[in-house]
Design brief:
227 residues, alpha+beta, Arc Repressor Mutant, subunit A, Nonspecific Lipid-transfer Protein, Chain A, five-stranded mixed beta sheet, 12 helices, 7 strands, 43% helix
Length: 227
């Protein structure tokens, strides 16, 4: 078991748990590890407000307490780390139920959204070795491409130079709303908040290709609950 640092000075399992995982960045690192991110650079890109120095510190802290371990160039959860899944997603459930209202402007980061989206591409739905999804935002001058080659998706911020299968146009807030389960894709398309242009074979199956955030079911369930 991991070494205990008696930060709060209370002999209580809740207190000891908080000593290990009670800090904001530690919980967000666990969120990303639980949803499949394993490499340091990928963890860093998914946590843009966290410096690489502090990320290293937090990972070492989690390693020291037996929650995370190194496996070559990857960080993987130990059995004790994996056992935190209901705790982390319990926070998602509580947040969706009680704290998840309209976004603040500083929370809408187009680059982070595209990064998250590319981690949820279901490449098994796509036939062929290469596909390109182009994302255009009405309120962000940057352009993004999700390139899928041989089943591996990556994010490009310059045109990769291959034919585009589908272009997704939206404002940042609307695509966040779809991604997080606040706005069904069908409703976003009907209202014009999201537009698709491209191959019918891909656009018709976009909801299968681009799976939603792992927390979307909690948000969608809250949306469906009568007031």
């Amino acid at each position: 078991m991991g070494r205990h640092d008696p930060g709060a000075g209370q002999y209580c399992p809740i207190s000891r748990t908080l000593d290990v995982v009670g800090e904001r960045w530690s919980l967000l690192i666990l969120r990303d590890l639980l949803t499949g991110t394993t490499r340091f650079n990928d963890l860093s890109r998914g946590l843009p407000g966290l410096s690489r120095t502090l990320l290293t510190k937090r990972l070492r802290h989690l390693e020291r307490h037996g929650v995370v371990e190194r496996s070559g160039t990857r960080y993987v959860l130990t059995p004790s780390g994996r056992a935190l899944e209901p705790v982390v997603f319990g926070l998602a459930q509580w947040g969706a139920d009680w704290m998840f209202g309209d976004p603040q402007p500083e929370e809408l980061d187009a680059q982070l959204l595209v990064w998250w989206m590319h981690t949820r591409v279901d490449t098994s739905v796509l036939a062929g070795d290469r596909h390109v999804l182009h994302l255009r935002f009405d309120d962000d001058a940057r352009r993004f491409w999700i390139l899928v080659e041989h089943g591996t998706p990556s994010v490009c911020m310059t045109d990769p130079g291959f034919p585009v299968d589908v272009t997704i146009s939206s404002d940042v807030a609307s695509l966040y709303a779809v991604w997080l389960g606040r706005l069904p894709l069908t409703a976003a398309l009907r209202s014009g908040r999201v537009h698709l242009d491209g191959s019918t074979a891909v656009t018709r199956r976009l909801d299968e290709v681009l799976q939603l955030s792992p927390v979307a079911p909690f948000v969608a369930a809250m949306r469906a609950t009568p007031a």
